[in-house]
């Protein structure tokens, strides 16, 4: 074993630390001939070309001059002879005893004053004019200089200048086609310029991720499943000695921001095996066959390093169900990539020792072949954290903050129901920024409350111009919601409401939802009546309605259609559901019911909405005094809390039930945020827990 490790280390040393690889002269023989590397040829050609170019351009030779200077040399009697080359240029030879007069000119071109010429060169121009000018310059001179004429050719320079570019282009094309031929169509395993090569980041033993399971707060069940995958790779014999097989893949499913990628990072940090990480979009390219080529290359690398883990984030980018291509039958590169992925995960060739992890928040659109056992054997649901898990997450993100004594982790976790781990991290960061903006020495409880309000409702707009009439309409609208939600058993009770504009909304309200596993028809009807309370209040108090209820109407319309056509809560339509869980109806031009049934559904929806609207108006008429007090209090303070409603209407008989929920953990659904046009009365229905 020690000898094998030593040999492996020697191979790694030869391959990585030594830049010459197999050309290392100190490398021990392995019985194989040295592998020829074409890049050596490229380098030699480039060096030769540069040397020749340097020789042609920068080698020492005659100094360039002009006819004016040569004429002066002739008049001074310094010129020994002239040599005309190709009737285009002339070389000037200086007399040896006159060279000292030009020693300063030779510096930088000659190492010392040259005794052998030529010493200068110049362009003659038209040869007839040159002969005439030379004759005039020598008039009256006793020693006449007669130029000699020669024809010379610089074959090397002419060849390089004429054929050099073509040679470079041919070599470049040869290299490109050689690269393409390695992997066939689509770039192959390497592909042209590595376009078909896997883009995965490899975290090996020498390059570890710092994130571990200790850094993952909450998600107890999901973390346990992932920890078991790491244990599979560390101690496979424990699970296979009874004849079982190690799962091939696990799919992390959950809403955005719940920590799916964080779990994968923890796996990379905990596992003592190579970890390949890439995104589903890394497979997608504009070239045909590149995605499939990258899949092949990824699994080729993974099999070479098995046992290992491959993590594909946002796998829905390539894993959508086939047959939903909007191009209507044309070749779809994404489907080719998916087909290759399916083959590699569980095809004819086995990939033992390679475990696939993937993450998505769109599991409903994934192809069924991808979800079957043998590919993704396990689906790990990463849900929104409950009260206790939010407390753990807050403790992680509060570590780097300087907190005030009034900040309690339990209080913060109760104020953020429905928040994901990413939302909680954002709350902590936003609270720190708010405290710094106010020049505080520590982050206080109020800073966290302001951060929650800003994240849910948007930035507070104190300078927005609103008329008194609009402000009054907003106050009665919000008071209508608050009144009905407080007086109906199953409606979400109000926690806080404000008429200070936030984001696009002119009014914002925070409600506490009840934790439910199933929802009854009575509960849905109470919620519908509460949502219609704003418009009902406008009609009763002002005798007219505004566009501020647009978000409310959109919400209750969808809810009513779901009750009739999906939940089977209409007596006339019956116990039928037209919901397609496979998602195929999204690409269908026909509805799964007749036109007569469609008319019946529309009628039932209208009856539901109208009945709850009349119910909302009746509740407001019966409690007109309390509604008016609440609206005036809202106009006076701009922000009111559940304590104010309790003083006006009394305690809710269902308060304890709504506060704690059926399981007593105070959890809730994800906050619902509504934002309409800025000039209208708007609601931001946000659900939080009171202090």
TrEMBL record:
GO terms for cellular component: plasma membrane. NCBIfam families: FtsH_fam. It holds the Pfam family Peptidase_M41. This is ATP-dependent zinc metalloprotease FtsH. It is an enzyme of class 3 (hydrolase). Residues 246-386 form the AAA+ ATPase domain. Its EC number is 3.4.24.-. Residues 1-13 have a biased composition (Low complexity). Signal peptide: none annotated. It comes from Maribellus luteus. Homohexamer. PANTHER family: AFG3 LIKE MATRIX AAA PEPTIDASE SUBUNIT 2, ISOFORM A, ATP-DEPENDENT PROTEASE. It is a multi-pass membrane protein. GO terms for molecular function: ATP binding; ATP hydrolysis activity; ATP-dependent peptidase activity; metalloendopeptidase activity; zinc ion binding. The gene is ftsH. PROSITE patterns: AAA. ATP binds at residues 254-261.
């Amino acid at each position: 074993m020690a000898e094998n490790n030593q040999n492996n280390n020697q191979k790694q040393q030869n391959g990585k630390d030594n830049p010459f690889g197999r050309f290392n002269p100190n490398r021990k023989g392995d019985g194989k001939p040295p592998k020829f590397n074409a890049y050596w040829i490229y380098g030699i050609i480039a060096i030769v070309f540069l040397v020749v170019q340097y020789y042609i351009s920068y080698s020492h030779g005659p100094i360039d001059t002009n006819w004016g200077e040569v004429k002066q040399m002739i008049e001074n009697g310094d010129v020994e002879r002239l040599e005309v080359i190709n009737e285009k240029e002339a070389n000037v030879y200086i007399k040896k005893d006159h060279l000292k007069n030009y020693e300063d000119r030779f510096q930088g071109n000659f190492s010392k004053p040259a005794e052998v010429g030529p010493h200068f060169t110049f362009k003659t121009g038209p040869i007839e004019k040159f002969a005439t000018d030379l004759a005039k310059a020598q008039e009256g001179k006793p020693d006449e200089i007669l130029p000699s004429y020669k024809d010379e050719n610089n074959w090397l320079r002419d060849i390089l200048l004429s054929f050099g570019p073509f040679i470079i282009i041919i070599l470049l094309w040869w290299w490109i086609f050689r690269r393409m031929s390695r992997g066939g169509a689509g770039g192959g395993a390497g592909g042209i310029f590595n376009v078909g090569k896997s883009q995965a980041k490899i975290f090996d033993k020498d390059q570890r991720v710092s994130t571990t399971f200790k850094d993952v707060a909450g998600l107890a069940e999901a973390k346990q499943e992932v920890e078991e995958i790491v244990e599979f790779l560390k101690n496979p014999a424990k699970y296979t000695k009874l004849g079982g097989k190690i799962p091939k893949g696990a799919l992390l499913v959950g809403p955005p921001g719940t920590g799916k990628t964080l779990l994968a990072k923890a796996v990379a940090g905990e596992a003592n095996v190579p970890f390949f990480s890439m995104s589903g979009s890394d497979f997608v390219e504009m070239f045909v066959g590149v995605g499939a080529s990258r899949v092949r290359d990824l699994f080729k690398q993974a099999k070479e390093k098995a046992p290992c883990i491959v993590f594909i984030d946002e796998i829905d980018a390539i894993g959508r169900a086939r047959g939903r291509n909007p191009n209507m039958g044309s070749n779809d590169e994404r489907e080719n990539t998916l087909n290759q992925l399916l083959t590699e995960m569980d095809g004819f060739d086995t990939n033992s020792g390679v475990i696939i992890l993937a993450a998505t928040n769109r599991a409903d659109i994934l192809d069924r072949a991808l979800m079957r056992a043998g590919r993704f054997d396990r689906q790990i649901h990463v849900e929104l954290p409950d009260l206790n898990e939010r407390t753990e997450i807050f403790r992680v993100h509060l570590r780097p903050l300087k907190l005030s004594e009034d900040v309690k982790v339990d209080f913060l976790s109760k104020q953020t129901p429905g928040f994901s781990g990413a939302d909680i991290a954002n709350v902590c960061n936003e609270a720190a920024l708010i405290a710094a903006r106010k020049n505080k020495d520590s982050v206080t409880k109020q800073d966290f409350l302001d951060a929650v309000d800003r994240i849910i409702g948007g930035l507070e707009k104190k300078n927005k111009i609103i008329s008194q009439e609009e402000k009054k309409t907003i106050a009665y609208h919000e008071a209508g919601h608050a009144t009905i939600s407080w007086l109906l058993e199953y409606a979400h009770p109000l926690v806080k409401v404000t008429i200070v504009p936030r984001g696009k909304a002119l009014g914002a309200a925070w409600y506490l939802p009840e934790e439910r596993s199933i929802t009854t028809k009575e509960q849905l009807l109470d919620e519908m009546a509460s949502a219609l309370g704003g418009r009902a209040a406008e009609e009763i108090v002002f005798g007219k309605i505004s566009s501020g209820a647009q978000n409310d109407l959109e919400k209750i319309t969808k809810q009513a259609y779901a009750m009739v056509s999906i939940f089977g809560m209409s007596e006339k339509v019956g116990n039928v559901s037209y919901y397609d869980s496979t998602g195929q109806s999204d690409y269908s031009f026909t509805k799964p019911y007749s036109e007569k049934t469609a008319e019946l559904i529309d009628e039932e929806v209208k009856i539901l909405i109208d009945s709850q609207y009349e119910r909302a108006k009746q509740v407001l008429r019966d409690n007109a005094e309390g509604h008016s007090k609440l609206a005036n209090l809202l106009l006076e303070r701009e922000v009111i809390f559940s304590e104010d409603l309790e003083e006006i209407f009394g305690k809710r008989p269902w308060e304890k039930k709504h506060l704690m929920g059926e399981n007593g953990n105070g959890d809730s659904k994800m906050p619902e945020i509504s934002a309409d046009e800025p000039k209208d009365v708007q609601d931001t229905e946000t659900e939080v827990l009171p202090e």
